[in-house]
Give the backbone structure.
Amino acid sequence: MDDTEETAATPYAEAIGPLPVLRDTTTHAPAWERETSRMGVADSAAHALFRGVDPISPGTIFAKQMDRLPHALVPSLADLSSSITVVRRRREVGYFRRFSSFSEAFHDPVPATPSALELVLPPPYLLPPDGEEPPAPYLTKARDARQGLTGYLVGWHQGEYSSCPLALRGQYYVKAPQWWPDYEVPYGVMAEPPLVLTYAREELRRGDPAAWSVFRAEWAVSTAVALLQAYDERRVVLLYPPRLRDWIRSVGATNIAADARGEPDDEVEGKLLALLRLLDELPHTSAFVERLTNRAPNRRDRAGWVSVVLEVGREGSRALVDEDLAPYELPYSSAVTEARLAVPNPWGAAVARRRHLVRFPGGGDVPPSSAYEPVPPVSALPEPRPPTLVPPRRGDNAERSQRVPRRIVAADALEHGDVPDHRFDVLHHLPPRGVALGLANFLGVDADELERYPAGYLVSALCHLVVDVSQGVLSWCRTVPEEGSTDLEGLLNLVGRRALRDAFNRSLPRVREGAEDRRRRWSEVGDGYPEGPPSRRARLEEYPSGWGR
């Protein structure tokens, strides 16, 4: 921005007169009279909005907007917009003049994806605070106005929006497009609406391709800036939807991180790319959102961010999750990994390090005196001792037992044949409410995928899972390792969350086939498959007329 543009605007209080005070109604009419006497604003869309919302006292509506613009400037005639008759703050001086030049040269349809060529203002976009930033409540109210089927794209300065009747909002505000939910930021994100929404609102309402092209590019930049600021101030990553991340990548991290000379800032660019890569690895499912919400149910914004830490290595910056969101397997930071090692059992160490560990916490082949003794870090563990040999047995197994360490020799595993079919028939008629979501939270799968199956099928698959795991553990116990029985990783591969999830997914088709097979066998007998649990079938047989259905 050159010097001529900076001096082309003067503070409103100096050029026109004092700003109206919202709570002092005696200042509204005089301020409105001074406003209407300005040159070039009588027929503007901004004044039409004030008169349309309240024809009797438009000065009050004008005061509601100007109350949010204490730093308002009066622009030159070349920089005067019809959508707003002032410039909100100094960094926006000259914007409408630049947009008009861009719009005159733009003759193509709206591109498939935004690019840096559609940005009206040059870099830098990561600017230090200048005291003219909008308060957080203004940005939150602007986001709330965009929600729902009747949402509208509103600037943070438009305090009169709530006073406009619902029937008139379509005449003065930009209706949120149908695709907008795919590009909306989570609640609590302090992303400013694009500048084109403020200074070219009427062009957007008409569907001008140039205005919408600029809108998409500016929204990508604004959300990327909010993403970086959230990490710098709070050490969190905002859970942006995938399509919004695609817009940010389309504009380019290099262009967003550029300085005043247009040269990219490698550190900022690496930080932005690392946060975007982490977002690609995080699950965006209802179960994951509920997992975050449960960590702080009293915070409405908790479902929109995850604590992260940025680590810089030889391969560049890498963002890691800095809070334990088990049972989800995510790229966790070293702090979370070390915290998991303090869990009172050796399985956390086996999960974290994927290596052979000693059998009991603290080393040795004797269990600790307390079951709650914490596990020390892996680096502090002594080398595993040689396995303690048991006394040789008599008979042909004496030589074999001489080299075999002590192990589990007794197990009571349930076989599939031990479960009667009628028990599964009862399970197939369970109510579906809550079953899929409960299993999804523990298995780390998407609840939407599990909801395709009846609730009884899910519970039956869970029963099959118990049988499969018990048989796997029994087989593992009967297998004699060559180098001792301290292979916790081997057992973990049988009973770990991934193994349980895979076994559960394999059980679902088997449950369905089993139900169809039993239904077919019932049909062959001639009585038909029972369409209700045994207790309900007994009542129906007792009252054949259908009473009690």
